[in-house]
Specification:
The protein has about 110 residues and is mostly helical. Helices cover about 55% and strands about 10% of the residues. The longest helix has 21 residues.
C-alpha cells in the first residue's frame, strides 16, 4: 500500500494505469494472495484504486496541477543550492548533514523570527 501511495505521489503511477493482477503481484512480492487482495481493497476505500470486476485494478489518482514528482525535483534543487552554498562557506559534508538533521528535529516547532 505504501509503495502505491509513494508511486502515485511521485508520478510513477498515474490515473488510469492498470495494476498487476492479485496472483501476479502476490507472486512477485512473495506474499499471500489474501495480503494483496486486502491491500487492493484498502486502496479502493482510500479512493486510489478502482477495482473493475473481470477487468482488473486501475489507479484512480486525484488530478493535481503540479505533480508530486515536480514538487520533489524543485525541492531537490533547493537543497542542492543550499548544500553548494554551505560548501562554498567552508563547511564539510558531515557538518552540513548534522545541520540538516538538527533542523529536521525541530521542524514541527514554530519558526522563530529574529
Amino acid at each position: 500500500m505504501e509503495q502505491v501511495h509513494h508511486a502515485i505521489e511521485i508520478g510513477t503511477l498515474q490515473d488510469g494505469d492498470q495494476m498487476p493482477g492479485i496472483r501476479t503481484l502476490a507472486e512477485e512480492l512473495v506474499v499471500s494472495h489474501n495480503t494483496v487482495a486486502k491491500a487492493y481493497t484498502e486502496l479502493q476505500h482510500a479512493g486510489l484504486l478502482e477495482l473493475r470486476h473481470g477487468s482488473g485494478a486501475y489507479i484512480s489518482a486525484p488530478k493535481r496541477g503540479k505533480t508530486r514528482a515536480t514538487e520533489l525535483l524543485q525541492a531537490a534543487r533547493k537543497v542542492r543550492n543550499v548544500v553548494e552554498s554551505l560548501r562554498e562557506d567552508g563547511l564539510n559534508i558531515d557538518e552540513i548533514r548534522r545541520l540538516f538533521e538538527s533542523q529536521l528535529l525541530h521542524v514541527d516547532q514554530p519558526v522563530r523570527k529574529a
